[in-house]
Amino acid sequence: MGEMDQGRIVSLSQVGMDFNGHTVLHEVSFDLYPGEIVALMGPSGCGKTTVLRILIGLLEASRGELEIFGSPVREDTSRELLVSLRRRMGVVFQNGALFDSLTVGENVMFPLRHCLGMRDRDAMKIRAQEILGAVELPGVEEKYPSELSGGMRKRVAIARSLVYRPELLLLDEPTTGLDPQTARHVDRLVRDLGRRFGIGVLVVTHDLVTTLGIAHRILLIDQGRISWRGSVEEWRRSTSPEVRRFARGMEPVNQREENPDA
């Protein structure tokens, strides 16, 4: 990999992953820079979620090199360094992972207390109100997740991931289960928030509409290998068999009726 370019947030070089003697990732390499949105796109079971879990630290790569914020992440990396790196990341899981027993405000404030160690409740409330306003959900602090639509819950999850001002945002299938109107609303928010906060964003998705609507660069992964990479413009012009095969095999997503309350 050579000396790490300090401008990169993430750099993977020849990263591979094995499970029970079966290779699920084959020499995956890519970089992610501040302010850009990269879509890691592919069908279910292609290996894209494995990449996400390696970046989060839930899995350790079998081989290859990984650097996050300029720091190599290896088997002998200290727990202290890993924790400090994770605090610079925001993660939104596919199901949102909100705490049903907490109000929206308490959900959003949770990482301020437990990740940053903040104790000033008034300061935390102000921060939560600001970020909820940024995701277009002002005034919902006292509601519970069960009182919100699916799209609103997704936006609360995004707010919670951004409240402690990370430098990297990782999104796992952000539009799955949402109707078309809500999905495009989430897409727009992700694009605008990335610009507003200047963070790097990695979107793991099988939603081609999301990818073409928000990404600066596309990585197409299939059977654990990156089979194509390029810009949205290059994708639209591409005649490669990998692009054609994926586009042809895409099933329509977000089929439910549009929900204006999302």
What distinguishing features does this structure have?
262 residues, alpha/beta, six-stranded mixed β-sheet, four-stranded antiparallel β-sheet, 9 helices, 10 strands, 24% strand, disordered N terminus, disordered C terminus
Short description:
The chain is α/β, with parallel strands linked by helices.
The number of distinct helices, counting runs of at least 4 residues, comes to 9
Average predicted local confidence, pLDDT: 88
Order of helical and strand elements: EEEHEEHEHHHEHEHEEHH
- Identify the overall geometry: globular
Largest sheet, spatial ordering of strands? 6-7-8-3-9-10
Give a short account of the largest sheet. Answer: 6 strands, mixed
Strand proportion, as a percent range, falls in: 15-25%
Contiguous runs where pLDDT drops below 50 for at least 5 residues: 1-6, 251-262
- Taking the alpha carbons of the first and last residues, their distance comes to 44 Å
Helix content: 25-40%
Specify the structural class. alpha/beta
The radius of gyration computed from the alpha-carbon positions, rounded to a whole number of angstroms, is 18 Å
| Quaternary structure state of the chains depicted | single chain
Number of strands: 10
